[in-house]
């Protein structure tokens, strides 16, 4: 794909997502939903900018590791629509387990904490992602590379998975009927971000909820979620939010959940 086309398409997607944020802000204001807080939103935007820069910074590292792993692929599957579909589903399956382990393994939680640190649920929270998470990506998708799925399909599927999750971070959409429990929905993801006792460590799927149903981590939304980690407010400083998990990890103070 031509680089100019990619840049243009990416720009259009960004403007579309930005327009949705504006619409959600207006909805929150008119309905008095209080889904946005100025300091929290500015922190989200700062973290988003840092995350985009980190992707550029760590691209060479990711490419090198993935290129090295590809030498040991068991198969070399052709780039066909069916293989892309398999890649998309496989990426979501791997994402489910990576996401679930990120809530169970303290070092991985150090990376993931920033995403659960907001006391609000809105579209800008979706890109509240750790600047160092790009260091983990090659190892997360390593099994898919080793079985021979095309690297470009893996990368595209991972990108689409994260893009889909953008739409899950909102209170503006209620339950979606029969789709609940099959696909990840805003309702299911509100549960995931809840620090309520019955909501902790539930609904890890990125696109599909079938993994959660199969492996016993599915929880429907029954009460309003209390967002954030169990210890409450952390900070609105993006540097504190990004690195707090690592500081707490090395201090041995990670006795909180999100």
From TrEMBL:
Ranges where the Fatty acid hydroxylase domain occurs: 84-217
Sample GO molecular function, one term: iron ion binding
One BP annotation, GO: lipid biosynthetic process
Subcellular location: Endomembrane system
Nucleotide-binding as UniProt keyword: no
Transmembrane segments: 6-29, 41-61, 81-98, 139-164
Main location (coarse class): membrane
Keywords of this entry: Lipid metabolism, Membrane, Oxidoreductase, Transmembrane, Transmembrane helix
Membrane topology: Multi-pass membrane protein
GO CC list: endomembrane system; membrane
Family matches, as PANTHER family: ALKYLGLYCEROL MONOOXYGENASE (PTHR21624:SF1), STEROL DESATURASE-RELATED PROTEIN (PTHR21624)
Protein name, UniProt field: Sterol desaturase family protein
């Amino acid at each position: 794909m031509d680089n100019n086309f990619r840049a243009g398409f990416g720009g259009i997607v960004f403007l579309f997502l930005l327009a949705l944020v504006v619409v959600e802000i207006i909805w929150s204001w008119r309905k008095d939903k209080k889904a946005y807080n100025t300091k929290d939103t500015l922190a989200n935007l700062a973290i988003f900018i840092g995350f985009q820069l980190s992707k550029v910074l760590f691209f060479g590292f990711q490419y090198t590791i993935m290129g090295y792993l590809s030498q040991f692929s068991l198969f070399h599957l052709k780039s066909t629509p069916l293989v892309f579909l398999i890649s998309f589903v496989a990426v979501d399956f791997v994402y489910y387990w990576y996401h679930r382990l990120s809530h169970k393994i303290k070092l991985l939680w150090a990376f993931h904490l920033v995403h659960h640190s907001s006391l609000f649920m809105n579209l800008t929270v979706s890109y509240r992602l750790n600047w160092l998470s790009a260091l983990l990506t090659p190892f997360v998708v390593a099994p898919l590379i080793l079985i021979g799925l095309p690297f470009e399909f893996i990368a595209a599927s991972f990108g689409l998975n994260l893009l889909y999750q953008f739409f899950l971070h909102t209170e503006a959409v209620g339950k979606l009927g029969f789709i609940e429990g099959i696909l990840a929905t805003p309702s299911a993801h509100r549960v995931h971000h809840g620090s309520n006792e019955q909501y902790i460590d539930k609904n890890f799927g990125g696109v599909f909820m079938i993994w959660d149903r199969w492996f016993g981590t599915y929880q429907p939304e029954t009460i309003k979620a209390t967002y954030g980690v169990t210890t409450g407010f952390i900070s609105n400083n993006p540097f504190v939010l990004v690195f707090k998990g690592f500081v707490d990890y090395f201090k041995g103070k990670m006795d909180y959940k999100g």
